[in-house]
Amino acid sequence: MRKYIILLITAIMTLTTTVQALQANRPLAGSRARSIEQVLRLRPEEIEIGRAALIISQQWSDEVLGHRYLAKLDYMSDDLAYKIADKGLENSPAAINILNDYLFKQQGYKPIDDADDPDDLFIHTVMDNRRGYCLSLSILYLAIGERLDMPLYGVVVPGHFFVRYDDGQTKFNIETTASGAIVDDEHYLEKFDIPEDIDDSIYMKNLNKRQTLGCFFNNLGNVYFDTGDLDQAELALERSVMINPTLAEARMNLGNVYLQRKMVNDAIHQYQLSARYNPNEPKTYNNMANAYLSRENWREAARLYQKAIDMDPDFIDAYRNLASAYMDGGNYRAAIEQLRIAISIDEQDAINYY
Questions:
Q1: pLDDT for position 24
Q2: Residue 59, Cβ neighbours under 10 Å: how many?
Q3: Contact 130/123 with Cβ under 8 angstroms?
Q4: All residues at 6 or more sequence positions from 193 whose CB lies less than 8 Å from its CB, including other chains
Q5: What angle do CA 240, 246, 251 make, to 5 degrees?
Q6: Which pLDDT score is estimated for 16?
Q7: How far is 113 from 242, CA to CA, in rounded Å?
Q8: Order of strands, edge to edge, in the sheet holding 152-157?
Q9: Residue 88 falls in which region: left (phi positive, over 0), alpha (psi -120 to 50) or beta
Q10: CA distance 219 to 118
Q11: What is the pTM for the complete model shown?
Q12: How does pLDDT run across 127-176, given as a tens digit for each residue?
């Protein structure tokens, strides 16, 4: 009996030591940060994604108690550390299976169909409701992974965000909106129409933690823009393009803020940069055309609206906007033709009749 007790104690001590080793590898250099300004002064490897996300949550809502969510992240990662050590999978790609099972099956985290609710961006809401969209679920995934010293990276493509495991030898993509399913590069390249041969393109690359936050600032800027807070929207989007200058979505969204502020030249400049880094996005040309139309340059506006339509023949807003450009030019027959096309696409859209 004494022999078995000694063996049991030895096994427990070995497991505890392994878990403590996993925990000791947590990147805690950013744990002293108390503001997003302090976070941005850190080197990328010093940033703690979970803490940074919760700082932003606290700025969004002063009712968020960040320390409570940090404690929950610690609890989740401690629980996972024991499970991984118990299977002897520390420093192994197979540990991802345990993380996926824990997060999506045991804890019940799931994706949402759309991102209409601005609160779904923030990590505290994701943890409260156990749901989120591609970026917010990925931020949670990365926050847990960094506590376990897993080689995980954020990856952005036009209109989407996912996680990648890359230890230098083994590399695979993790789709957080599909319960952590492994998805190959070809899926993203085809589905999201990723531009090729763009200098310094950010798409499909392993992002460091600072770049991941830059993607978060893009979505944060959109949230503030949609709520009418142009000051915070501008601040977030300017941070996004400062960190990720080739992120086309951030350039386009910053252009929208500038256009709202009547800073037309600045808006056009951002739209041009957006089109340079992702020439495959029709919304960029539609929005750029809006800027030219605001300067009463209806010919250039009409050209850009038509370019957007050529790229997306079902782009109703572009048809409607092209009609406005033709009306400004006095070509009412052409305007009516564009509106009739818009009506043929969606007969229930009352604005087209109006």
A1: 44
A2: 15
A3: no
A4: 158, 280
A5: 55
A6: 47
A7: 30
A8: 152-157, 160-166, 171-175, 181-183
A9: left
A10: 9
A11: 0.90
A12: 999 999 999 999 999 999 999 999 999 999 999 999 999 999 999 999 99
CA distance 145 to 153: 9
Average pLDDT over residues 217-237: 97
Residue 179, CA distances (Å) to 72, 141, 165, 168 in order: 20, 11, 15, 24
DSSP helix, strand, coil percent of the chain (3-state; round to 5): 65, 5, 25
In the chain the first and final C-alpha atoms are separated, in Å, by 87
The alpha carbon dihedral of 249, 254, 259, 260 has a sign of positive
At 26, the pLDDT band (50, 70, 90 cuts) reads low
- Look up residue 100 and give its amino acid: N
Residue 1 one-letter amino acid: M
Give the position of tokens 């960094």: 146
Maximal C-alpha separation, the chain? 97
Judge whether 218 and 195 are in contact, CB under 8 Å.
Answer: no
